[in-house]
Amino acid sequence: MAAIVGIFVAKTRRIKLFVLAGWATSTLGFGLLVLLKPSTTIVQWIFINIPSGVGIGILFGCIGLATQAAAESSDRSPEEVANIKSMAAGLNPFFRTIGQTLGIVVAQAAFANQMRKELGDQAAQDAASLTQLIATLPASSVEKIALVNAFAASLRVVWWILLALSAAMLVLSSFTKDVGFGNEAAVQPQDRNQDVEKVAHERVTSN
After folding, report:
1. Residue 191 needs a FRET pair 20 to 30 A away by CA distance; which of 11, 40, 123, 146 works?
2. Where are the domains of the chain?
């Protein structure tokens, strides 16, 4: 999806539509993930996971482009635009990494707190450790059934958090300016040449 969005942005020179499409698809996907439960079949959870993956892929391909496109302005010289674009290209993955780090911490805390509510302090482990523990228990044991149900309920809290954040970003993105990609930069050199010719003509006339 990131590659496909890159192609469409290059063709249309517009970005906001794809940003909104990405957040809308992600919001739908996280809403569907809330429906996951222990009785969900393999086929069901595969298709339930697709929308969120598609939405995140769209955003992964266009958010960075939107950041760089915002640097394009007729009020800036080509050198200034190039410098700002380079800065934007570097800061985008930097803030994405910070977001991923915070996301892991928040999701883990939400998961552990819900597990503690479901089964007590002894069950407040990270998801990876719990999956290993569940795999070692007999299929029909009461302990395994309780752990699986608590695990699903705790994971659902994470999906609710992601759903709320994604919906908020969808609303906020709708208020952003629809910045064209590459349009002003392409016109800028021509405008600058015209300005130079105009100044030269005025000097000749005054002399």
Report:
1. 11
2. 2-115+155-206
What is the DSSP track for 73-117? -TTS-HHHHHHHHHHHHHHHHHHHHHHHHHHHHHHHHHHHHHHHH
| Model pTM score | 0.75
- CA dist 23 and 27 (Å) reads 6
Long-range contacts of the stretch 40-45 (C-beta < 8 A, 24+): none
Q: What is d(CA 30, CA 32) in angstroms, rounded to the nearest whole number? A: 5
- Rounded to whole angstroms, the Cα distance separating 68 from 92 reads 9
3 state DSSP class of 150: helix
Residue type, 110: A
pLDDT digits (tens, 9 = 90+) for 90-104: 888 888 899 999 999
